[in-house]
Amino acid sequence: MISARGLRKSFGDFEAVKGIDVDVRRGEAFGFLGPNGAGKSSTMRMIASVSPVSSGELRILGMDPATDGPAIRGRLGVCPQEDTLDNELNVFDNLYIYGRYFGIDRATCRDRAHELLEFAQITDKAKAKVESLSGGMKRRLTIARSLINSPDLLLLDEPTTGLDPQARHVLWDQLFRLKQAGVTLVITTHYMDEAEQLCDRLVVMDKGLIAAEGSPRELIDAHSTREVAELRFGVGEHEALADKVEDLGERVEVLPDRLLVYSDHGEEVVTAVLERGLHPIATLVRRSTLEDVFLRLTGRSLAD
Amino acid sequence: MATTDARPTTRPSGALSVREGIARQYDYWLTVYKRTWRGGVANSFVTPLFYVLAMGVLLGGFIEGDPDRLEGATSYLAFIVPGLVAAHAMTIAVSETTYPVMGAIKWHKTFFAQLATPLAVRDLVNAFLCFVVFRIASACAVFMLVLAPFGVFETWWGPVLAWVSQVLVGSAFATLAFGFSARLKSEEGFGLLFRLGVLPLTLFSGAFFPIANLGPVLEWAARLTPLWHGVSLSRMLCLDTVDWSLAALNAGVLVLLCVVGWRWAVTGLDKRLEV
């Protein structure tokens, strides 16, 4: 579906994407995980065939965005990071009119818009102004709009940023259903839980480059331990205490508010810490996540 | 943001024909029109009618209707009407292609949403301008029809052609202002455009008085403005005083401005939306 080789994007002197290789296969959910400014959105816009490739090779659905842009865009669904819904149109018209841009006939557009309102669970809002919708509803409407042309490939740029947890879960459920229906999804996110939930395979991006690639499980297995012991001490003590627990795990990360000790046996780490006479304010043993992978690969947390 | 990319020069596959590109946006613009036509009536019809009454009828009552001094008009009302409608076409054109263009780029991001579909920048500009031209054409048509009973037109065919000339001058300004708006980063620039562009043009391009009154230097400066070409054409046609070589020049300049302006609008928006 997507194949990129040495893909680059520059804005003047600034290089946002510095040569990446990516392959996305039919029917999979593929993720770009990385902090803000990693080059995810620039990559997405090149894939969406609205932003020209600076250098390297890019093929979408077997076509070249430089020469086949309109044909590619006709088969893509795009859910942009910022809502671009038309606030002056009602909910139904946002879907209907968007469908017309794809050259879909009026009757089909109407049917499709009704189906999608149902899918997005906003049928009762069909005649409402977009402005009156909640953030979660707007997001669902944006996704519904991106499906109006029954796309082969759906691009979702930060689909749940700014949503409350409940709205996120509703949205994830809908993306799951799309995936099961065979739609290929490409998702960018800086939420590791979202990437773990939704993606079959992902790349971790940092500073315009790909730092690692694989399924969430593979990445965690390859770059982290099974468990992590989180130790919270008093303010400013973490740096000094790191030396005292260093030998208890494979690796120790110092964060401003806690120490992370990486070990396959987290509980044993906590017991050993207490035996050494150290008294953390709080402890937590958890499984490794993609956040840990990212920390390992880049030395920074995703929130940075 | 400036990029180092080169745009392809060949026509991309799946690119829409001009007609198809516009047709796909018909429902959008129809919805916009249904929502905004009421406000448009006040702006595009009531306001200029006030001008006609205040300046043409009331102020005109103090002005001697001497055809030699009024470019062939037998009354000040007959003199002012063709120019006023042409200036009005310009005002509508500029109003419809300033804030609405910036809105579609900056505030509502309509253009970005539209560009994620098979539509291209050229298609967006074409449909937008078609809508604006429709607004100009309908406003000027209504205006001319209402003025007909005032006895200000000499022939039946002259005002019809004058209406075409008003649409032409409006179109020229629409394309130029679109190009300007597409390049403008902040809406503050519009204040300058209206104060230093639209207002002086309205006042000094021959709509309200013969430009011969400006003196030789300023008269020539006025002749160089796009609006004067529209006013001159519109007036000659309404008063049946057509100098066909001058009319050809006026029309030629306006058509040329439409072509250049369209190009300017497309390149401006293309650059602006490139991310």
Give a verbal description of the structure.
The complex is a heterodimer of chains A (304) and B (275). With 304 residues, chain A is of the alpha/beta class. Chain A has helices at 40-47, 65-73, 91-101, 106-119, 135-146, 165-180, 192-198, 216-223, 238-245, 266-275, 290-298, and strands spanning 2-11, 14-24, 29-33, 55-60, 76-79, 153-157, 184-189, 201-206, 209-214, 227-232, 251-254, 259-263, 282-287. Chain A folds into two domains: 2-214, 3-Layer(aba) Sandwich (Rossmann fold), CATH 3.40.50.300; 225-287, Alpha-Beta Plaits, CATH 3.30.70. Chain A is built from eleven helices and 13 strands. A six-stranded mixed beta sheet of chain A has the order 5-6-7-3-8-9, sandwiched between helices. In chain A, strands 11-12-10-13 form a four-stranded antiparallel beta sheet. In chain A, helix 3 (91-101) crosses helix 4 and helix 8 (216-223) packs across helix 11 (290-298). The longest helix of chain A is centred in the middle third of the chain and has 16 residues, at 165-180. The radius of gyration of chain A is 22 Å and the shape is globular. Chain A starts with a strand and ends in a 6-residue tail after the last helix. The mean pLDDT of chain A is 89. With 275 residues, chain B is mainly α. Classes of the chains: A alpha/beta (304), B mainly alpha (275). The A-B interface holds A 10-12, 45, 48, 50-54, 63, 66-74, 76, 78, 80, 82, 84-89, 93, 96-98, 100-103, 106, 149 and B 1-8, 10, 12-16, 20, 24-28, 31-32, 35, 108-110, 112-120, 273-275.
